[in-house]
Fold this protein.
Amino acid sequence: MKSLFLYLLLVIAISLPFIIISSNFGFVTGGPPGIVGLLNTIAFLIVWLAVSMMMGYKLKRGFNLIILIYWGMLALVFFPITNTLEVTKELIPLVLVFLISPLYGVSDYLSTDEIVFIGIPICVFLCFLFFFGGKTTKNRKLVQN
């Protein structure tokens, strides 16, 4: 239980800079994300993949649960948006809105449906792939020694 709490703190630490950047570049004001928003989203995803690989390499088994929780919450937040005609930010709790803000940079290029049903599952798959890639690298290194 203690390790899950530490992983949640790590996820917050990972996400917070990207949330701040996306909030300053259109997410809160409703403006277009622009190139800064797109670069922020790409950097966010790269950091997630790097952390997933590092946690797999360190053989942190509970982190794969955090991957499911975080990206699952993103899908649950995006899902009501895809099933209603008009959803304002006030209808979704403020905390959950900031979960989706790092992905705001791709909103010019992908619809909300594409983000939920294609983008988030791809991100989960890639995080697991990198996690198990790191784990495999560590196991291979242990076997060789």
DSSP finds five helices and no strands in the chain. Residues 112-144 form the longest helix (33 residues).
